[in-house]
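Fold this sequence, please.
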Amino acid sequence: MPTLLRKRNSEGRMSLGDHLRELRNRVLIAALAITVAGVLGWIFYEHVINALTKPITDLANQRKASGGNALVNINFAGLTDPIAIQLTVSLFVGLIVASPVWLWQIWGFIVPGLTKKEKRVARLFIVAAVPLFLAGCALAYFMLPKAVSVLLGFTPDNAANLQDAAAYLNFVLKFVVAFGCAFLLPVFLVALNLVGILPARLMLRGWRPAVMLIFVFAAIMTPTPDAYTMCILALPMVAFFFAAVGIAFIFDKRKAKQDPGWLDVPDDEASSL
């Protein structure tokens, strides 16, 4: 019998071996979904690659219109680069399209022992996770032209800037996926709260280091030197963090009615945050 359907013991716990087998099965399901969805990326590759390289082509057209150097474009340097890049872009599309499947697999592995009522609530959060991930990806694509324009703007007018296609697309794809994953912050915070690992009190006490880490993450993931682009990513993440804290307080009140002692956090653990 597949481990995903294997019954847990009376306490709802699983052995280490069962956990590893469940992890293997969920990884396989997620990988298969991404691969199947990647077929769409292969079919619509021309449209996707044109959209991803549009910031560079637009910059080249602007330079040409202003009488400057128009040699700004991507360059397929190697013999195998075209097919390798097409495969990479196809898997990237598969990752986006199959996000409901692999997000569900991650969620199912993190919160396996919930009650029936908690599972109904959990389904609402996985429904929220997909739009949040897609919204993060959309925001990254919206910010991509500014990032490319700022970075390539340092190129002198009398010099060409032919970007290696593999390096450019690697930068773009990581940029987009990083924004999408960043927007999943509230979902995973609430997941940790649901399984009893992260009470809302601890989340709220640690808001200062959390906000600092969010801005550090945003500064690393936004390659432009201006603070505007960093804030575009950091401010929504901060808002999501406090929204997750509010939702966690609601769940904590419900859990406290059933187990009043579960919110008792040792002082040394709380003060560390």
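Residues 1-11, 267-273 have pLDDT under 50 and may be disordered. The longest strand covers residues 72-75.
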